[in-house]
Amino acid sequence: MSESYTFQPLPLINPSLDINENHYWNYHNIEELISCKKPLTASLDEDLFIAVHQMCELAFHQMIIDMERVLKTLAQALQDATDPIIGNTAEVCYFFRRILRLYEVVNTTMPILATMRAFAEFRTSIGPTSGFQSFQFRHLEIMSGVCKYWDGGTKNAEGKLHIAEIEFNQRYGEQVAQWFELYRQHNLTYYYQILINRAAGNSQAECLVNLQTNTNASAILQCFSAYDNLQRRFHKSHLGLAITQLKIVGADVGTGGTSFRDYLAKYEREEAPLFPGLEDIL
């Protein structure tokens, strides 16, 4: 982390709060947190199903907070006039590496659902809910620089969208459009391309090799590569999990009506890798 950064105690958001009464259970809202799990059946595996997704959503929320700081500090480093390629990336990597750790948490947590034996107990009772509808994951993907690959992901054989996607578009469509505009020239892949354009070389491969000789550029490329691998791992794991669980219940579509094989495989086919060329040198 940058040595120039100094920390100062911050005032309470609520000045009337008595911090002497701020105990662990109420500071972290443990009872409220647990009560957020509201299974619709008596299945204990449904309780697990909810818990795993909520843990991932909490991780996504923090990843979004840190990704804002990654993008901000990355933009600042690229504007550093003291270096023709990129300035000090210590702050960028500080937040980026925490995102990587959080993504590891997600990639470790989600596969727990593969141990779930009783999906059939509650699958037909939970309606159109689907991981497809995770607006936080969409937010994170847009910040990463993906295109709208999920659009139409729930179409059936007749080309009609499932209610899961229809409702998602109605609730978050405008927000998603705003995110795409906000991060249009402020996302990971955009800044990756700037780095390549600044490097010497007659090809992308040569540019990447030369960037490796720049300490600050090399550090951020390492983070890009690790993030790309974790992103692809998540998608592949999600696909494998869907196949495993739906095979158990003898179904061929996801909980939200998705043609899961086509939709979940679409990322690998159309978006991956996020940072072309890195897989060849790192």
Automatic annotation (TrEMBL):
One of its GO terms (molecular function) is metal ion binding. GO terms for biological process: L-tryptophan catabolic process to acetyl-CoA; L-tryptophan catabolic process to kynurenine. The keyword Endoplasmic reticulum does not apply. InterPro entries: Trp/Indoleamine_2_3_dOase-like (IPR037217), Trp_2_3_dOase (IPR004981). Pfam families: Trp_dioxygenase. The keyword Cytoplasm does not apply. It comes from the Bacteria. Keywords: Dioxygenase, Oxidoreductase. This is TDO2, tryptophan 2,3-dioxygenase.
